[in-house]
Write a structure and sequence with these properties.
Length: 267
Amino acid sequence: MKTPRRFQRSQARNGGKPPGRDRSADSIIGMRLNKYLAHSGVASRRQCGDMVKAGMVQVNGEKEINPAYQVKEGDVIAYKGKVVSPDEQFVYILLNKPKNVITTTSDEHDRMTVMDLLADPELKNYRLFPVGRLDRDTTGLLLITNDGDVAKRLTHPSHEVSKIYHATLDKPFTQLDLAQMEVGFELEDGPFSVDWVRYAKEDDPLTVALQIHIGRNRIVRRAFEHFGYTVERLDRVYLAGLTKKDLPRSFYRYLSEEEVRMIRHFS
């Protein structure tokens, strides 16, 4: 397999300026310990809570096993003996992911990840992570940030974040199946429903556009498999108000200030 080239920064006018928005020092005071660790890039908030309970975290040199401990001014927090702290600035990057790239910060099988290919030297000191996942063969929009609150807001089911996909199938999608998908149905792990579904182009029944606000594993592919279709190409073209405008495949850009405000207050 050909190694993907490094992502390129888009020079389009709709891109924002690096590196991002300042984090207020006051925002850290009173933060729960598991959240502080997550913002420091240690792991997810839930995993950080488990690490605290397991005695892997020290506050001012003393073991702290309460994930709800509230960080105080001057606290020195260490994980496995190494002092950690959140980045001083938030970074928000929109990426148009190509195929054959893993949506993780690292991979135990040494496969190429989105973070391997994000090579901007201005980012080397930031502990960034992708928000949600696109599987290896799925292309399209992916948000990368170090803002744990935004990540939680955009991935938690209660916020019902909208995503639009274009799915190209192995055979034409019939009008009957289109109508049944619009009504909704049950999959093995729960209901599947769409906000809307239609052909991406009127004269092309091979490519279906659909908007959903659920995010279970391989949900779009499994939905089409339910009707006996195989998804040959899957592309996410819209994510939480963000689009692919002026963002070719394998390019990225920083969010504008207006976009940052939108996703920070998304509900």
